[in-house]
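Q: A small favour: would you put together sequence and structure tokens for a protein?
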Amino acid sequence: MSEDFFEKLLEQDPYIQQQHALDFAEGKAFARRRAEGEMQALQRVLVNIVAARFPTLLDLAQQRAAQIKTPEALHQVILWAATAPDEHIAHFILIPPAT
């Protein structure tokens, strides 16, 4: 029998289709958990940097870290906070942009 024949049988098999669907769902769930873990780690980095450099801005840093929705944006704020020359600039960095 040809390889195409077996491929067609596998593609039509309900059990195989169910396993593919489960594998896909598990992959998506893993990716979501990984992204959430990355965001939590970046949030901790921002808060720790601000706590070490500008302790009076800790509450603001925690609020801002929770508000930022993408790792890229959070990473940018981390870089700005890490290189802020003084507390006034750090405060400005941590204030959410007007919508």
User: Anything to note?
Assistant: The chain has a mean pLDDT of 88. The chain has one domain: 3-94. Helices lie at 3-12, 14-53, 58-67, 71-83, 87-94.
